[in-house]
Write a structure and sequence with these properties.
Blueprint (H helix, E strand, L loop, with lengths): L16 H5 L7 H71 L2 H15 L4 H5 L2 H17 L3 E5 L5 E4 L13 H6 L8 E6 L1 H5 L11 E9 L5 E10 L3 H5 L10 E5 L12 H6 L39 H11 L5 E9 L5 E9 L4 E8 H4 L6 H29 L5 E3 L2 E9 L3 E8 L5 E7 L6 H15 L9 E6 L5 E6 L3 E3 H8 L4 H20 L2 E2 L8 E6 L2 E7 L6 E2 L4 H5 L14 H5 L6 H17 L9 H10 L15 H10 L11 H14 L4 H9 L5 H4 L7
Antiparallel strand pairs: 1-2, 1-5, 3-4, 4-5, 6-9, 7-8, 8-9, 10-11, 11-12, 12-13, 13-15, 14-15, 16-18, 17-20, 18-19
Helix pairs in contact: 2-12, 3-5, 15-18, 15-21, 18-20, 20-21
């Protein structure tokens, strides 16, 4: 009943009924409120205790993270310093061996005798004794990729040189002369990068406008006294300049070297950003051009300083290292409080003086990555473990690389003489070689002996057979194949004079629309032939696309590495390629291939072509990720950005639409064929032509030497 009126025959409800109905021992409302208050107090105390514990734990974890970062930076610093030291020591030992060669000593003694007899240095340098000396050391020059050779007398005069322009010059009074002095005391020295104007003084015509690194070693006379200094010069931007970049390919970490004036001595990994910011011109490498100074804010984010970089203060790391040396030590350290680097980005870092070599090795990592939010601690700890593992692998790889430097003795494979290794993959090595009779350079791919199973040999033979079907001028040409003396399979292909599109964008930043379209049309030509013959490449990426000088033509693109190629109509293909079903580059793999690696048709190549186009036109990757797992997720799920949003605002709408269609998630949304892609690119090319004179101007200023700069065909 819902009424509150009294019911006849029933007693009035007692006012204390709640208390009566309360079970024995139950608390009253007032008692309950008191207990609730007590509970609140207890919970508050517990919460406060947890908060204090959390704050303490946060501090402990933060300190642990700092300690781990310090250890990681120190480990990476040790690895980088060791790799650089190993390389320098190897070059010094090689120079000493040649300087101790008796014919070299006799020729040097003859040159010194002429100089002491009153003949001026220029005449001595052009004497027959100079040619004899050069003939004796020419094998060393070729093997060690030296570009300059100088024999310097005690008075500093250059009495023999590989280049006539140096004949008769004198080493300038100053830093280089000071570094040369120990050689006449019997020591071999490594001289960090110097411009030739600094070395021989301004106003002289010198053959190199780029910095060189030198190894100077004593040459002794019959009685053992030092009579001259024999120096071998190498372009600093080559092996020395890029050695520290080997571990700077992941995350935001960077390693580089700088001198006591705060000038960078090695390559920066941020050349593209520096060029976009106007700190470097096209083709400049940054060596002795980038001061390690703080611009005041992040120039990559758009900040443009109003003062010249000479007025900027040194970065905290550079200032600390230089000041420490002036004070007599310490000679290494770690900086865990964020500071701005030479880009203006917030970083932490470590440094070490290589005092004998008069340079500082620095390693840095962006602070945002180093001190990620604590809620991602598990991820951060996993990253740190990977960081340590990478540092150890970098150290091991550097050591193995140094050992390989000692193993440059030529080997023969069939009719080819192997000169040096230019690439290595999981199952093969790639060598620069020359045919014994034709003397033309070739690239020879050799299956690793440990993996020379019937299955692998079958795969290699299949690769040769499939590629030999292709004759398009934009596809790399296969010359020959056979087996080594040990029975290992190999094949020879053309060696290309140029650089990969990957390296081109790294050097130049994003390409002009006209040049990018010109390159992409050539790739389309190669793929069109392959698709028409029932073949899918499956590993189209910038590294496998070479920009060459070929047959008298410039800006010729060659498609490399058909090692993952698939026959569309051959059921046996799936079995043969099962071993390599996960090979390829996730960044350029179509979503359907990530779901099912064996599922690839021509539209998978079209997707990769679109990703390559995005890279060429914007200078950026289609997707950016910290790990392969994140990258795969983005390829499968994240919408692809447009090229105009990514930096190619000058691209015509038809080109932007084409790239967007090529990288569509669903294969049916992509162009039906490479021919369709090529037709649209041809339309753009008519409006934005890349002319022969444009290519000629670029190649005329390209600083690379073919054998030093041309990347190898990728080794699977």
């Amino acid at each position: 009943m819902a009424s509150h009126e009294p019911v006849p025959g029933l007693r009035k409800i007692p006012e204390n009924l709640p208390a009566l109905l309360r079970p024995p021992g139950a608390a009253s409302g007032e008692e309950a409120r008191e207990r609730l208050a007590n509970l609140v107090v207890i919970v508050g105390i517990v919460a406060l205790a947890l908060a204090v514990m959390g704050w303490w734990s946060h501090g402990q974890v933060r300190q642990s993270l700092r300690d781990l970062r310090a250890a990681g930076l120190s480990a990476l610093l040790e690895a980088e310093s060791g790799a650089l030291t190993i390389w320098i020591d190897e070059k010094k030992r090689s120079a000493e061996r040649w300087a101790a060669d008796e014919p070299v000593q006799r020729s040097a003694a003859a040159l010194v005798k002429l100089a002491q007899g009153g003949m001026d240095a220029a005449a001595v340098c052009r004497s027959p004794a100079r040619h004899a000396l050069l003939d004796q050391i020419r094998p060393f020059v070729a093997l060690e990729e030296a570009v300059a050779v100088n024999l310097v007398a005690r008075d500093g005069a250059i009495i023999a040189a590989l280049h006539d322009d140096y004949c008769g010059l004198t080493v300038a009074k100053g830093d280089f002369e000071r570094r040369l002095a120990p050689v006449f005391s019997g020591r071999t020295v490594f001289v960090r990068p110097f411009t030739e104007a600094e070395r021989v003084g301004p106003g002289h015509r010198v053959p190199f406008d780029r910095p060189l690194v030198w190894v100077e070693t004593p040459v002794r006379g019959d009685s053992g006294e030092v009579i001259a200094a024999l120096g071998f010069g190498r372009l600093a931007e080559d092996r020395f300049g890029t050695l520290l970049l080997l571990s700077s390919t992941q995350s935001s970490r960077e390693a580089y070297a700088f001198d006591a004036h705060g000038m960078m001595l090695t390559q920066s990994r941020y050349l593209g950003d520096l060029r976009l910011a106007g700190r470097l011109g096209p083709g400049e490498t940054g060596i002795l051009r980038i001061p390690v100074r703080d611009p005041g804010a992040d120039i990559v984010a758009g900040f443009r300083p109003s003062t010249p970089d000479s007025d900027w203060p040194l970065t905290k790391l550079a200032d600390t290292a230089i000041a420490a040396k002036a004070a007599g030590g310490p000679f290494e350290g770690v900086i865990l409080e964020p500071y701005r680097d030479y880009r203006g980005a917030s970083v932490i870092g470590a440094w070490r003086w290589l005092r004998e070599k008069e340079m500082v090795i620095a390693v840095e990592i962006e602070a945002g990555e180093a001190y990620a939010p604590l809620k991602y601690l598990e991820i951060a700890f996993g990253t740190l473990l990977g960081f340590f593992a990478a540092a150890m692998l970098a150290a091991i790889s550097s050591s193995l690389w140094a050992v390989r430097l000692k193993q440059r003795e030529a080997r023969r494979v069939g009719p080819y003489t192997l000169e040096r290794e230019i690439g290595e993959g999981g199952i093969s090595h790639v060598f620069l070689a020359r045919h014994s009779h034709l003397k033309r350079p070739v690239a020879v791919k050799v299956l690793k002996a440990a993996l020379a199973t019937d299955e692998m040999t079958t795969r290699f033979e299949r690769e040769v057979q499939l590629c030999s079907r292709l004759s398009h001028p934009n596809t790399i040409e296969i010359y020959d194949y056979g087996r080594t003396r040990e029975g290992t399979f190999y094949y020879a292909m053309e060696y290309l004079d140029g650089l990969s599109l990957e390296d081109l964008v790294a050097r130049e930043g994003r390409l002009p629309v006209s040049r990018a379209v010109y390159a992409l049309r050539q790739v389309c030509g190669s793929l069109k032939e392959a698709h028409e013959r029932g073949l899918v490449h499956r590993d189209v990426k910038p590294h496998n696309l070479m920009l060459c000088r070929h047959g008298g033509e410039l800006d010729v693109v060659k498609v490399l590495d058909f090692g993952l190629v698939k026959e569309l109509e051959n059921a046996h293909t799936r079995d043969i390629t099962q071993f390599a079903r996960v090979l390829g580059t996730p960044l350029y793999m179509a979503p359907e291939r990530l779901r099912n690696p064996a599922d690839a048709d021509a539209r998978a190549d079209i997707y990769a072509l679109g990703a390559v186009a995005f890279f060429l036109l914007t200078g950026r990757r289609l997707f950016e990720a910290q790990s392969d797992h994140d990258l795969v997720y983005q390829v499968l799920n994240a919408p692809a950005p447009s090229i105009t949003e990514a930096g190619a605002q000058d691209a015509p709408p038809v080109l932007a639409s084409l790239v967007a269609r090529c990288v569509a998630k669903e294969r049916d949304a992509r162009p039906a064929s490479v021919a369709e892609v090529a037709a649209i690119l041809a339309q753009v090319a008519r409006e934005r032509p890349w002319r022969e004179e444009d290519a000629a101007a670029w190649w005329a200023n390209w600083p690379g030497r073919p054998e030093a700069k041309a990347p190898a065909p990728a080794a699977p």
